[in-house]
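Let's practice the habit of predicting before peeking. Look at the sequence and jot down your guess about where helices and strands might fall. Then scroll down.
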Amino acid sequence: MTVTSHGPAFSLQEIPFSHHGSWFDISPVVAQHTQAPDLHLVSHQNGMHPVLRLVPLHPGTGDRARTGWDAAPAVLTWRGDGGRIDLTYESADTVRLRGQDLDLMVVPAAADLTSFSGTYFHRDPVDGSYQFTSYETGRRYRITPLAGAVAESVGLEGLGGASRRLTLSGPDGWEAAIEEIDSARAPYAARDGFPALVHRGDRSFRDFADAVAALPAERAPAAELAAYVLWSATVRPAGFLRRPAVLMSKHWMDKVWSWDHCFNALALAPGLPDLAWDQFHLPFDHQDETGALPDSVTHSEVLYNFVKPPVHGWTLRRLRDRLPRQPGPDRLRETYRRLKHWTDFWLVARTAPDQALPHYQHGNDSGWDNATTFDAHRVLVTADLAGFLVLQLAELAELGKELGLTDEAERYLRTAESVQTALFEQLWSGSRFRARSPHTGEASTSRSLLDLMPIVLGERLPREVSDRLADRIASHLTPYGLATEHPDSPHYESDGYWRGPIWAPSTVLIEDGLRRAGHTGLADEVSRRFRGLCERSGFAENFDALTGEGLRDRAYTWTASSYLLLADDHHRRLTSAGRAVL
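Done guessing? Here is the structure:
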């Protein structure tokens, strides 16, 4: 009966069990910061919705069995009271279960059924399967008993608060399938045995991991787990997501935000270039008539109430450096058109008349939602925004030259130079960058790491400016990484979102800028400490800067991607240095 999955073991309290392409997972995490005592089938169509509660039972008494959970990439196991239940994915929308000396009760996560919410339970006269129909997800969950299974149902066709459940059992072991379907499909038929499904799942994960995390274990001991976080959080095209998409998480952060996707694209680029290219373009598929990108995209909604910073020029330059082959002319022309439209949004819709620099309308636009930079004013001209825009304009100029658009390329290069000149004339005080209100011109400063983000300009910075920025950045460096608010600041909060914790994107952007500005020693230290933090505390959304504890969502893909990106760069530098010695 025993089957083994090869790959990293992980805690289901932190990382959900799922499969590449699937829109659902198996997890005790049923809402933001909420864990249930039982594992649930949790769907991410129409949002995050726990649909079915999965409860192991003692076969002799029908009482709840005392079990623990083991999880590896291809198999999840309940184990206890002398029995076990194994679960594996057969495909992106189907799981298979196998039980021995343990029964399984399947119960709707929502106890009540109303006209607008809850889960309806019935038996299909066509194939004899049992179906739970969810209002929240708009999908059906079909359970088909297989070899040795005895199915006992309660509450078929019941309404309101009627008890509804299905119990699977079998004295000599049992099997079953659960499918997430839209409306109807042919009756389920098992085509492969359980061990073959596990082997196939292992192969799928191994192929992915070999492509994105082929690093020596001693140099990147968490690379395989990072690969699992990415592999399992990838969903097939559906709803508003028109391409395969790496969600930020298959917990409650189950969206693609319009800068998070950049870091996933960079990590995937060397080994999975087509998937990486899709990640870069996902938000651009919903670019509006002004050129704005949406704040976020997910299965059933596209939000435009905020935007995200224009990091896409920086990303495209790094992406093209990491791709094993360059995109063809058609792809480059499409990318140029989209990036041009996005850049023009900042130059027109977000630059006030008679002003040279664009502004954010809220901290959310910057990606640093509640950073102390925005305490004095929410609508603000900031140095990080100008720095990103300079890099985007410069990348547009380079791309325009390649495409033979000489006049446009020269215009974007001149604009990049004028924005950079205005950045120093208007926001540089001689010792630090300040932000300004576009309404009053009032200047403000903070102790946020965001104010130091112009280091991304790297080699474009005057040496005295990059030295000042590097010194200030070094003062944010704790034993675990870069605190987003200086630890000595009166506004520092250990779990304050962007008011203290360490974040992956700020780490990657600053590490890259420091390195290009010639501060390689500090860049090495930033990289080393962040990689060590992930190896110690996993791939959380962010981390306590003083203790290294993982905070918020614990299975965040841009953190996993940032780890892989930094580890890969570190490995390449060591390999290159070794070749130089030889």
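How did you do? The chain has two domains: 17-184, 214-580.
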